[in-house]
TrEMBL record:
GO BP annotations listed: mRNA catabolic process; negative regulation of translation; regulatory ncRNA-mediated gene silencing
Name of the protein described by the UniProt record: CCR4-NOT transcription complex subunit 10
Signal peptide extent: none
Species: Plectus sambesii
PANTHER family: CCR4-NOT TRANSCRIPTION COMPLEX SUBUNIT 10 (PTHR12979)
One cellular component term from this protein's GO annotations in UniProt: CCR4-NOT complex
Length: 131
């Protein structure tokens, strides 16, 4: 709610408090999600959309993606295997951060990867046109 209201400091405070409140083996792992991925994605959204720091947002999104394994690979590495829509949402967020940082060619490549699955989403076409 704080993120939607534009209050970055409060959103960061709530996010960090929530990340410390839940143990690392919280039920997310059973649901196929990772606390590290969710928190890094949220941090990237805060830094990218409210604070207008696309390079920091890019770093958080890349950290979230690096905490994932490719679909179907072994989980003994301690990494989580995310479903395709989650993975593509992270890829879209990376593209947005790159576009805000005026790195249009890598952003275009990110949006093309997302477009292969979500070809009927007009936002992706809009972002491609912006690139």
């Amino acid at each position: 709610m704080e993120l939607l209201a534009g209050n970055a400091r409060s959103a960061l405070t709530h996010l960090l408090a929530a990340s410390k409140a839940y143990p690392s083996n919280w039920k997310l792992q059973q649901m196929g999600e990772s606390r590290q991925v969710i928190i890094n994605n949220a941090m990237g959204c805060i830094y990218g959309s409210i604070l207008r720091k696309p390079h920091l947002a890019y770093g958080f999104f890349r950290t979230a993606i690096s905490a994932c394994t490719p679909e179907g690979s072994a989980k003994e590495s301690g990494l989580v295997s995310l479903p395709v829509p989650w993975r593509l949402a992270l890829q879209y967020n990376v593209g947005l951060a790159l576009l805000q940082a005026r790195q249009t060619q890598p952003a275009f490549d990110c949006f093309l990867n997302v477009l292969q699955t979500f070809h009927s989403n007009p936002r992706i076409w809009l972002r491609l046109a912006e690139c």
